[in-house]
């Protein structure tokens, strides 16, 4: 176990039937691993109906009849014992066409970062990212590990419709829009990978802890 115990989590109620364990920023991979491990443990606990890991937090929906008064203290004890040991990650490769009609904001990001567009692509695709959590919309993976040199602000005016498969940068994070939706991140590319399909089991091919590599493709 690592030194995250020096930053104890806050535990508070979300209504009468849910608890939230929340850690102070910043989010780190070690903390996320401990959240994933604790979530795995609590899914087998009869007191909880649903266990939802987020970035730097864990939300727990109680089952009827759970002894709510004892849960905050028990959750603190479990967090202190949670093991964030590194596990072998699945590596998921996602092919991406960068720039042009697929990535209309690539040049904007390049200018902001003082780089050439080709260098943005090279840096973005050189990293092995980690899926921190899924949120915002079904299948949207928040990826940790973006090169700090590629951090770029969100658009001043969000788009009303971002195409499914769009690969984008928002602040210090990168991600992929699994379905068409409004969005304000800077779009630098697009993938044909299907990242959410409710008819498939599991509906999303990515899960927390997975490693993601973007593979540049030639425009077609």
UniProtKB/TrEMBL annotation:
Name of a matching Pfam family: CT_C_D
UniProt-listed Enzyme Commission number(s): 3.5.2.9
Keyword NAD listed: no
GO molecular function: 5-oxoprolinase (ATP-hydrolyzing) activity
Domain Carboxyltransferase as annotated: residue spans: 9-206
UniProt keyword annotations, A-Z: ATP-binding, Hydrolase, Nucleotide-binding
Superkingdom, natural source: Bacteria
InterPro entries in UniProt: CT_C_D, Cyclophilin-like_dom_sf, PxpB
Record-given protein name: 5-oxoprolinase subunit PxpB
Organism of origin: Chromobacterium indicum
Gene responsible for this protein: pxpB
């Amino acid at each position: 176990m690592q030194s995250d115990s020096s930053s104890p989590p806050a535990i508070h109620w979300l209504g009468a039937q849910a608890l939230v364990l929340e850690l102070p920023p910043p989010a780190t991979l070690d903390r996320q691993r401990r959240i994933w491990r604790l979530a795995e443990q609590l899914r087998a606990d009869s007191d909880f109906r649903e266990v939802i890991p987020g970035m730097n937090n864990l939300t727990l929906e109680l089952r009827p009849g759970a002894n709510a008064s004892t849960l905050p203290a028990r959750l603190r004890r479990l967090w202190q014992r949670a093991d964030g040991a590194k596990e072998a990650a699945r590596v998921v490769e996602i092919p991406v066409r960068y720039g042009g009609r697929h990535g209309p904001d690539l040049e904007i990001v390049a200018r902001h970062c003082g780089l050439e567009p080709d260098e943005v692509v090279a840096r973005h695709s050189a990293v092995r990212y980690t899926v921190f959590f899924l949120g915002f919309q079904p299948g949207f993976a928040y990826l940790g590990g973006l090169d700090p040199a590629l951090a770029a602000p969100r658009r001043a005016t969000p788009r009303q419709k971002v195409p499914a498969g769009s690969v984008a940068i928002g602040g210090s994070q990168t991600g992929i829009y699994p379905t068409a939706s409004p969005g304000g991140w800077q779009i630098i590319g697009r993938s044909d990978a299907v990242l959410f399909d409710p008819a498939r089991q599991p509906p999303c091919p990515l899960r927390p802890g997975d490693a993601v590599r973007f593979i540049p493709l030639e425009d077609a």
